[in-house]
Amino acid sequence: MNLYEPKADRDYAPISDHGLIGNLHTAALISIDGSVESYCVPDFDSPSVFARILDKDKGGHFSITPTVPFNTKQSYLPSSNVLQTKFMNEKGVVSITDFLPRPKESSGLSAPKPLLHWLIRRVEVIRGTVPLRMECAPAFNYARDSHTTTFIPDTSSLIQQDKVLFDSQNLKLELRYFRECTIDNACTPDVHLERLDQERKGHKGLGVSADLSLVEGQCVWFILRTPPVGGPVDHDTIVANGTMPPRSLDDPFISKEFINGLLHTTVKYWYTWIRHSSYNGSWKEAVHRSALALKLLIYEPTGAVVASPTFSLPEYIGGTRNCDYRASWIRDSSFTLYALLRLGFTEEANAYMDFIFERLRHKNPDGSIQIMYTIHGGKELEEIELTHLDGHKGSKPVRIGNGAADHLQLDIYGELMDSIYLGQKFGRPLGYDDWVLVRELVDYVVANYQQPDLSIWEVRNKKRHFTYSKIMLWVAIDRGLRLADKRSLPCPRRTEWLTARDYLYEEIMQKAWNSELKHFGQSYEETHVLDSAVLIMPLVFFMQGSDPRFVSTLKQILKTPERGGLTSNNLVFRYDVNKSDDGVGGEEGTFCLCTLWCVEALTRAGQYDNTMLPKAVAMFEDFLQYLNHVGLCTEEVSEAGEGLGNAVQGFTHVTLISAAYNLSRTLTHSKTA
Q: What's 72's DSSP letter?
């Protein structure tokens, strides 16, 4: 354990040093020293109120940290997304429990409870005493809006005390607290809120702070919420002596039983969800943590899946590759669907299919779909640079929105068709009207498969005939044909589809293959450039893992960059940015997605070559060491082992589940063979 020395001017916490909590509407990053570093209210893509991870001075934060040197441990409560951070030294131990509450499931005749848009932080001293400082300093609208700070009476408490109202132009937040004792003979703790002026750091309104001197058995709950708008009254709530009138369901009376009930209900929600997993293979703990992480990326009102709940975290410290991932990519979401289906979570898969088919009903006039949508289904994702924010460790620019939204990335049709096909195997059957939409999608692919595009890596200069896109276009047509055959669905252009699929296969073999270097290239135009995206070939059944061409490509990728490959310390780069101009510029780390694709490619090849399986196991075990302290993945890993890019990255957790599933299954079969 590292000893933390509290400082008045705290520096940036590393990207990996965070846990994630959420409520299926939004999510918050919590650092291992007890600071809320990223939080957007009320939805994933709403403006941030805390963004300290992107600007340590004026980004906004909500911290609860010891004022004396301490060690820290952070973990999730078992089988949940409720986060616990412990601070320890010789004189005491304090526990911070963070969660965004989930409502109690309705049963029988009881009315469903509303989702409370609350961020709850429970502070309890377990042993001895630990002096703490709480600071809540919101920075509204990405630290662009000013706000007022007012102390007003808290009518939800039996004890006369104040709460704090932060009032900005477009959003209001309230900070309340509740005190309790967890052991007999402990005194009720004292909490004195004071105004906190951080104008010198660039804040545009006052925050609040409190110095806490708690002892064993004393507990304080801090609740940050959007003020209630009023609604149905909760007539079932019993209040003291009946002296207080019934309150609306979104503004409940705060009691010891109620606040502890919220924690219990939230823990139970996550535990009940994950126990429905059908996975029984190896690395179960990592797989289930990945599944819980993916669940946090689902936007419940529409079924959309965000690529990541964070924005503009750098792919290279000090670099410019900083993007906003708080949107629903067709590609990422389709892979997420695959992973959840593999684990038996069909409800989420069906909800996402509903989201997708709604988008298909409103295709572009030429029959195409966007590569990404807002979590509400919108098409506008204007990219804006927030020049007033410093960026994580000085990594500028900070971006919101995404300029790649209108890119032509033809590979998305393959990922989407593959997920629709899998949905038919494990999810809800396809109706005729939806089949017509699918058929129109394949017709679009057949009409456009010879077009160049910008592909999976979203290059920002010139379109090319990327090998990965061609493979996924083949997948789109292939899955359409399979669906028609297996479900006996009408397919009037079957012959054209077959011709296009087979033509694509032959074209890839001829134009993407570099006969001199003996590997598939990144594009038809640049076959000398290696790209780990071609590792997808056996994963989507385009080619057998034993095919000599694929094996030769795989072996080349496994070489170090110094020897012309893409693998460093068992971690895989996307491509050599010095050989392939992607129009973005800057350096980047190894890509977690590509490392896990490599694991799975080795697994597929290992079904026919026993020397490959031990390599797959070693690479996977090595990769698991780069998960952070709570089992979460970033987008990339630097050569020094530091997590980079947006966190938590859904694509990485998806491929971890897929790699573990297929590697575990292959190892089991190899033992019984």
A: E
